[in-house]
Design goal:
Elements (H helix, E strand, L loop, with lengths): L5 H18 L11 H5 L20 E2 L12 E8 L13 E3 L2 E6 L3 E6 L5 E6 L18 E3 L2 E5 L4 E6 L5 E6 L14 E3 L2 E4 L11 E6 L5 E6 L5 E5 L5 E6 L23 E4 L4 E5 L20 E6 L4 E7 L15 E7 L2 E9 L4 E6 L5 E6 L7 E4 L6 E3 L20 E3 L13 E3 L4 E7 L1 E7 L13 E7 L6 E6 L6 E7 L7 E4 L3 E5 L4 E6 L5 E6 L9 E5 L2 E8 L4 H5 L2 H5 L8 E7 L3
Parallel strand pairs: 1-34
Antiparallel strand pairs: 2-40, 3-4, 4-5, 5-6, 7-8, 8-9, 9-10, 11-12, 12-13, 13-14, 14-15, 15-16, 17-18, 18-19, 19-20, 21-22, 22-23, 23-24, 25-26, 27-30, 28-29, 29-32, 30-31, 32-33, 34-35, 35-36, 36-37, 38-39, 39-40
């Protein structure tokens, strides 16, 4: 295939062997987009059929027609507005198949577009009820393709499967009660004919979980809660639930009944590694934020959990912030890669956590291989102990117990870094196997945070904390950083005045593409960090770019539309970037032909 080096051909062949192995495990074959297409997504250039541009989530393309030399000729081909008054944050990753782009938008909408012209083929607009409670804007991060279906989650906590040619509803399943704070914002993924999805709503005391449904029918296959003490289930052909073991051990790391409203929302979705046959899901903060109410590690919150797709059981877990008291969700994506050190290759995964540390784990068993800061200021912990795998806390930096305050209603205020919006939040990292670097959209900010008394009430915010977010530097908050997972060094950085909130794409053309809230889609030299191209999209970019090949030409696409959690929760930082304008559109680029 054009644009692929000899080594990449060998890599593609290896992926094909993995796909053949996966196919032999009894997975479902479907017309249209198959399991094999999805497993091989990272190695095929003419489509993008999975969130992450491959189930492992590397967001790497072997295409190199657009490279550090030719990128100067990159120009827009078309742009399509999502229209209407429904702007707000646009965090979607487009999917491309058979000359059609499928892209979701705010307020639970999805469009099918001709990839060459931008012509709208159909639109589905989910009818949302009054009273939805999205924590962090009315966003949607994308869809999944399987067979002749395109599947996405909605803000009223439903999964909807549409015929990808007509946009007509094929099946629709309620995931949970939006009145209780449940919603869905993540892109689902497909594993062996099953649609794998999580839930949003951790700030309302929901129960985080990962669910598997038959992708063709929507019928439940298994569900795995990620809060200790809750029962998992499998489902037979008759739809009846069968006990499948409690997650963890009841009350082992949660006191009393607090596990019953424990949070740990799986709101950023999951990745899948066919080599180990494991689903990796990140889990959010424990509820409430007031950690003094819930002594213990509070498993499996603020963690990565590895789940066997065959039976829905947790194979291993790694908790990045035990007994989280700062809202350091561990939902950030776990990206599979080969970790080469001292001549030894280990099947590993990398994760840039909200708490400011980058973690490298053995993806077969969850053992910690490396951990290091990817932001300049971390106050909640002094380091990660590489022997125990646990943080070395700075106990003076935990928000104070409100019952010990002067009036019993407010704990001691502490200044913590990073802020709860994280060293990295929903914006996706990328890994380039040619450079060996991860590309991390990082943010430098802090917060004043204090604890307050709180009790659970269905559908009400369940925080028990107050906060104010503030910038640490006058000249920048965001910085795209190239991180070496072996040495733990930041190789280069490119600073940005506003926070970075969109994902990264990296390519064999030695490029790293990413967007800024100021509206620019940028391309950097992946080796040096030097900016080599930029384009103003007209609104903030808080979504990940993608690339594919169509009729011998390489295309780049990105969604534009400022929003997300920063303007809603950002405090002083939100005021700092209030000049940014909302929008809602998708842009497509290719090289100009002279």
């Amino acid at each position: 295939m054009e644009g692929r080096s000899k080594s990449n051909k060998h890599w593609a062949a290896a992926v094909s062997l993995i796909a053949a192995s996966v196919m032999g495990m009894g997975s479902i074959q479907a017309k249209g987009v198959s399991d094999a297409d999805i497993v091989q997504d990272a190695a095929t250039a003419n489509d993008v059929v999975s969130f992450g541009m491959g189930t492992q989530g590397q967001r790497y393309s072997a295409l190199d027609k657009i490279n550090t030399e030719s990128v100067k000729d990159l120009v827009p081909v078309w742009s399509m507005s999502f229209g209407g008054e429904k702007q707000r944050g646009q965090e979607s990753q487009p999917l491309i198949h058979d000359g059609v782009m499928f892209v979701t938008a705010s307020y639970s909408r999805i469009f099918a577009l001709d990839v060459k012209t931008g012509k709208k083929l159909w639109k589905y607009e989910h009818r949302l009820p009054d009273g939805i409670m999205p924590c962090c804007d009315v966003v949607n991060r994308g869809a999944a393709l399987f067979g002749d279906l395109v599947i996405f989650g909605t803000l009223d906590a439903q999964l909807v499967a549409l015929n990808r040619e007509t946009g007509k509803v094929v099946w629709k399943e309620k995931v949970d009660d939006y009145h209780a704070g449940y919603s869905m914002t993540a892109a689902p993924i497909i594993v062996k004919g099953m649609v794998i999805s999580g839930v949003s709503g951790g700030e309302f005391g929901v129960i985080g979980r990962v669910e598997a449904r038959d992708a063709l029918t929507g019928k439940m296959k298994w569900v795995r809660p990620v809060v200790e003490g809750h029962m998992g289930y499998t489902y037979g052909a008759d739809g009846k639930a069968k006990d499948n073991g409690i997650s963890g051990t009841t009350n082992a790391t949660w006191p009393g009944d607090l596990w019953k409203t424990g949070g740990a929302a799986t709101w950023a979705g999951a990745t899948y590694d066919p080599e180990t046959n494991l689903i990796f899901a990140g889990t959010g903060n424990p509820a409430p934020w007031n950690s003094h109410l819930r002594p213990g590690d509070n498993l499996f919150s603020s963690s990565t959990v590895a789940i066997n797709p065959e039976n829905g059981k947790i194979v291993w877990h790694y908790q990045t912030t035990p007994h989280d008291g700062w809202d350091y969700d561990g939902v950030n994506e776990f990206v599979s890669f080969d970790y080469v050190k001292d001549g030894k290759t280990i099947k590993a995964g990398g994760k840039a956590d909200r708490n400011g540390f980058f973690f490298v784990l053995d993806r077969t068993n969850g053992k910690l291989l490396n951990a290091f800061p990817f932001v300049n200021k971390i106050t909640w912990a002094k380091s990660i102990d590489l022997k125990t795998g646990r943080p070395v806390y700075d106990d003076a930096n935990r928000p104070g117990d409100p019952t010990k305050g002067a009036d019993g209603k407010k704990g001691e205020v502490v200044t913590s870094a990073p802020s709860f919006l994280g060293g990295k939040n929903q914006q996706q990292i990328a890994y380039n196997p040619k450079t060996g670097y991860f590309y991390v959209p990082a943010n430098e900010w802090a917060m004043d945070i204090w604890n307050e008394p709180v009790s659970y009430k269905k559908g009400a915010a369940y925080l028990g904390a107050g906060f104010t977010i503030k910038a640490l530097n006058e000249d920048y908050i965001g910085a795209l950083r190239a991180v070496d997972p072996v040495t733990g060094k930041i190789v280069w950085e490119n600073k940005n005045y506003a926070p970075l909130w969109g994902g990264v794409l990296t390519t064999a053309g030695n490029l790293a593409f990413y967007g800024t809230p100021e509206g620019y889609l940028k391309a950097l030299d992946a080796t040096t960090g030097k900016e080599v191209w930029s384009f103003q999209t007209g609104s903030g970019v808080v979504a990940p770019p993608v690339t594919w090949e169509q009729d011998g030409e390489q295309y780049i696409a990105v969604v534009s539309g400022w929003g997300g959690a920063v303007p809603l929760w950002g405090g002083d930082v939100a005021k700092r970037v209030n000049f940014l304008e909302q929008g809602g559109s998708v842009w497509v680029f290719k090289l100009h032909k002279s």
